Amino acid sequence: MSESFDLVVEGGVCLTPAGRAETDIGVRGGRIAAIGDLRSAKAAARLSARGLHVLPGVIDTQVHFREPGLEHKEDLETGTRAAVLGGVTGVFEMPNTNPPTADAAALADKLRRARGRAWCDHAFYVGATGDNSGILAELEQRPGCCGVKMFMGASTGSLLVADDERVEVVLRAGRRRVAIHAEDEPRMQERRALIKPEAGPAQHPVWRDAESAVRATRRALALARKTRRPVHILHVTSADEMPLLAEHKEVATVEVTPQHLTLVAPECYERLGTLAQMNPPIRDANHREALWRALVGGVVDVIGSDHAPHTREEKARAYPASPSGMTGVQTLVPIMLDHVAAGRLTLERFVDLTSAGPQRVFNIAGKGRIALGYDADLTIVDLKARQRIENSWIASRCGWTPFEGMTVTGWPRATVIRGRIVMRDGELGGPPAGEPMRFVDTLSP
Q1: Which tops the pLDDT comparison, 359 or 442?
Q2: Domains assigned to the chain
Q3: Mind listing the pLDDT tens digit for each residue in 24-33?
Q4: Among this protein's residues, is 6 annotated catalytic?
């Protein structure tokens, strides 16, 4: 008697822990139940992946979806819609909303808002304020929480923990890995006077210079060692940070973004103006090449998009009144696949940075690989497809991308989440049914 499956993904080149294999994947109850020749198996649905590559579902561990309080820029529905259209199966959403996600009620509110509206699986950071350290250990253990996020610089409102004493208090409150935005607030405050409005956004990496990043990262690493608390340094941008991080791998993991690997100053500011403005800034070619060397050398653990949308009207304000941030969740896969096509990294390394890496760094349960018993999260891509990225494709409410007009090689063709075909050939398959992610270190015994 032949086996029966809810879905069989047929004939794709699958990137499994054992290597590449042209094979079928059988899904039952939302999980991978078989890998092999399933041509004779019964299946409620079949999805042909012949001529395509089947990757473990891509997880973007840094997005800002702006809900609640800033829904004119983005919300949980539009942000997760953009994610699945771009081949992303799961996201970690940041706490700098209005109000910030800094207590149990705010976390519960976000999980409630996501129910029935989020297209992909999701988890939410809680933000450290410096005054809520007494509840962080309990909050980070709650279902749907991916951990604590701390801004050492660049935040507004209450989510700024700028001095070492308060950073140490946060690091001593709990045990899961803390994600850190590492820019040195005192140095940036000093350098703010250097800004000449008439000179425009090309000053951004002068104001928020590499030394600001290096100082904060050095401080974070010293405190991580002192408290024995693991940290995750977000969106690393500078050449000088990478040797420091390489010396502290026992306490620190590292994220870089597609923007910092692709765009370069001063050209991006001349071409895009404030659309290229983000924190930390896009820097010059020497820094970009150092990021690539660190990625090839294994220092980098994760690729995150730092999707942080603002409306065109907001971005059109004269620098420095213009807000920092750009879209990225929908373009993460095609931009990085284009680097694969150019030979900058292998497809296996891409999988490690976007699936296995996030699982390993954050202890995500049941995701990150094509293996028996794991969630049937799949990002199915055409490595040969040449496609032009257009603003009209962007589902984010703000409707623009800094990569508009760029032709890439490699494109997402289908997004499968727990065995549901959520996107196929650019079309959504609804309704939204994303669920909170689970974490090994918070599961009940």
Answers
A1: 359
A2: 4-54+372-392+405-426 (2.30.40.10), 57-361 (3.20.20.140)
A3: 999 999 999 9
A4: no
